[in-house]
Write a structure and sequence with these properties.
This protein has 224 residues and is mainly alpha-helical. The protein has one domain. Helices cover 79% and strands 0% of the residues. It contains eight helices and no strands. Helix 2 runs parallel beside helix 8. The relative contact order is 0.12.
Length: 224
């Protein structure tokens, strides 16, 4: 099987298991979620590993922690902290890889977007704070990390203006939206639409980030 067919096959697998998990969430079917949610990142790892000649081990490690986060967050009570910790490592790895290859932004852009993302985090934490209890500081730390991921992805785009950089920025924004909905659903005002919206935005986020990494093989090589 040639590389093009491999890519098509694993892409189809990724979106198939993602859709089946989203259906499981929509109809509240625990079996579908247990079977297919862990397969989302496994299939994305396979898509990357078997179709990219030059592997970035940092990216594979980030996906491995995303997989752990998905598994832990299937238990939204007892293992919630482990899920946060796993995705925190994912965010830190993404930040590390982006900063390695991004151009230096102007001070105006740096301060402007830092201000915007900082205000978003402060506003969101303000909404969640009354119900966070002992999770206040872990949520603040994670909120800062995901905001920095969004910040560096945005700065990477505004300094390059390429379609590849746009993939990353959109992926980071969807990741931020997905995580914000998780927090709002658990600690603020639960909405019936949140669980499905969380998974749709998460799946699209991970796929767009993957699109960024396959188009930046040389610049993001972990041996650089």
């Amino acid at each position: 099987m040639d590389n093009n067919n491999l890519t098509k096959g694993f892409t189809l697998l990724f979106f198939t298991v993602s859709i089946l998990d989203i259906i499981g969430v929509a109809i509240n079917n625990a079996m579908l979620q247990v079977v297919f949610k862990p397969m989302i990142i496994i299939s994305l790892m396979a898509l990357y590993y078997f179709t990219v000649a030059k592997k970035n081990n940092w990216y594979l490690l980030a996906l491995a922690f995303s997989f752990l986060g998905d598994v832990f967050l299937m238990d939204k009570n007892n293992l919630f902290m482990f899920g946060i910790a796993s995705f925190l490592v994912t965010q830190l790895l993404y930040i590390f890889m982006i900063v390695k290859q991004m151009k230096k932004p102007s001070n105006f852009k740096k301060y402007l977007y830092t201000f915007l993302f900082a205000n978003y985090v402060v506003y969101l934490i303000g909404l969640l704070k009354p119900n966070l209890g002992e999770l206040l500081y872990p949520v603040i730390i994670y909120g800062i990390a995901i905001a920095i991921f969004g910040l560096v992805a945005t700065l990477n785009y505004v300094t390059k203006r390429t379609i590849t950089a746009l993939y990353l920025m959109l992926g980071a924004m969807l990741f931020l939206i997905s995580d914000s909905m998780i927090a709002l659903n658990k600690f603020h005002e639960p909405q019936s639409i949140y669980p499905v919206a969380i998974m749709i935005t998460y799946v699209l986020a991970q796929y767009l980030i993957y699109k960024f990494f396959i188009n930046n093989v040389d610049k993001l090589d972990d041996k650089n």
